[in-house]
Specification:
Layout: H1 7-18, H2 22-29, H3 33-40, H4 48-57, H5 69-83, H6 90-99, H7 101-130, H8 132-157, H9 163-192, H10 204-214, H11 220-223, H12 229-234, H13 243-262, H14 265-275, H15 279-286, H16 290-298, E1 306-311, E2 316-320, H17 338-343, E3 350-357, E4 364-377, E5 386-396, E6 405-407
Helix pairs in contact: 2-3, 5-6, 5-7, 6-7, 8-9, 10-13, 15-16
Length: about 425
């Protein structure tokens, strides 16, 4: 593989291979031809959304265009091989990516698609087990069937029934049959929606999460402190179909607006570089609480960090996903997460390295987390304040040997760690993920 080729050179080679003129490509991604020329001659660095736009138009993984692409592609190919139990070192991955770059791109995309599908299966399994709406529908169907059966038995077993009572029983059967039809239709509608796990929305919290995902968890108009920016995002948002979801999103954007005002984007990004991303140092520099810093890091443009927030009951109220760290949408999460430990140590910031089992069940994925719990509501004199815990999740390329790592899981139901002392129920995954 051409180790010396820079991002601009790769972009130019890919453009020529696709038969695109420089001016045409520049117009399609919204920049000038002269600026694209500077990029292709390595006189301008490229990254972020512009790199993503170029990669999408050139039909190639962004990692194949960016600086250090060789190492990224080799690492991903090696990871895919390890996940599926194939033995092959970096030399094999390097040779494959060098000789067949398009196929390397296809393998990486296919592996991501497999990951997405497996996450969908986990989500649906969790939902079928814990979704309160599904449980209520099944209970309604069973109750209605029992009622119809009991009424029919009376009509069958009682030889002489007064016409008035017979009419009443017939009316009950008719009404119960209508209820049964409604319940069955709701159940069928749910099961039909299983084929499209991404489209199903069953609660205001899910609507809210889909709303944030649609904007990549970043709101430029609020960052620019434009008047009425939050309202413009909320007005007519297709993801927020219920008033409850609207209210949740409104509160969140108010918090986002407050964080953006206290920690302006450009200044915060500069401070991140100076402080090395240390949340405590950043909190001191901007005179804000640690939870606000964790939220800010997770919502930076193109941030790869995950974020989880729970209330004092342990219920997850905010989920920003991160690859390799599955978070259940329904049911309970792993009790060993620092997120929950923080609730017992308010105002203390916890730093921990976590190892999560990979989907293949071979090896672990590595993350660094920061967690803190802080009061969000005072309940009155002499009463403990209501707490909310926040955990930032930072992916790591490998284990950090400078500090101990703690094995955790997603939730007991899909966790392969059989020897875990905190397990509540056996895992349905008999051979890993």
């Amino acid at each position: 593989m051409r180790g010396h080729a820079s991002a601009g050179t790769r972009i130019r080679e890919r453009r020529i291979a696709k038969g695109l003129r420089q001016a045409t490509l520049a117009a399609e991604i919204g920049i000038s031809a002269s600026y694209l020329n500077l990029i292709e001659h390595n006189r301008r660095r490229i990254g972020g959304k512009l790199l993503q736009a170029l990669a999408q138009r050139l039909e190639v993984e962004s990692s194949l265009l960016s600086e250090g692409a060789e190492q990224a592609v080799v690492a991903r190919l090696s990871s895919v091989a390890e996940r599926f139990g194939e033995e092959g070192g970096a030399a094999d991955a390097t040779e494959f990516a060098t000789r067949f770059p398009a196929w390397a791109n296809l393998v990486i995309r296919a592996a991501r698609r497999v990951d997405d599908l497996e996450r969908s299966v986990e989500t649906l399994t969790d939902r079928l087990t814990h979704d309160p709406h599904l449980a209520a529908t099944l209970h309604e169907v069973l109750s209605t069937v029992t009622s119809i059966r009991a009424t029919a038995s009376i009509l069958q077993d009682t030889k002489e029934i007064e016409p008035e009572w017979r009419d009443r029983f017939h009316r009950n059967i008719n009404e119960d049959a209508a209820r049964l039809t409604d319940g069955a239709e709701a159940l069928v509608g749910f099961l039909d929606g299983v084929d499209d796990a991404q489209s199903e929305v069953s609660s205001p919290q899910e609507e809210f999460t889909n709303f944030l995902s649609a904007y990549g968890w970043h709101f430029p108009a609020i960052e620019a402190q434009r008047s009425g920016a939050a309202d413009s995002y909320l007005k007519g948002a297709p993801q927020l179909s219920s008033s409850s979801a609207q209210a949740i999103a409104e509160r969140y954007l108010a918090c986002y607006e407050d964080d953006a005002r206290k920690m302006p984007l450009v200044q915060f990004q500069q401070a991140m570089q100076v402080q090395g991303g240390d949340p405590l140092k950043l909190a001191q520099e901007f005179s804000v609480d640690t939870a606000g810093v964790l939220r800010r890091i997770a919502t930076l443009p193109d941030s790869t960090a995950g974020l989880i927030v729970c209330d004092a009951s342990g219920t997850l109220v905010l989920r920003k996903p991160v690859e390799g760290f599955p978070v259940p949408r329904f049911g309970a999460s792993c009790p060993l997460w620092p997120l929950f430990q923080a609730l017992s140590r308010p105002m203390t910031t916890l730093s921990a390295q976590l190892n999560l089992p990979t989907r293949s069940g071979v090896g672990d994925s590595h993350f660094h987390t920061y967690a803190t719990a802080q009061p969000v509501l005072s309940l009155g004199y002499g009463r403990e304040p209501l707490l909310e815990a926040t955990m930032l999740i930072l992916p790591q390329d490998g284990p950090d040997t400078s500090e101990p790592a703690f094995p955790v899981g997603p939730s007991c139901r899909v966790c392969p760690r059989d020897a875990c002392a905190a397990r509540r129920e056996p895992s349905i995954m008999t051979s890993g993920f």
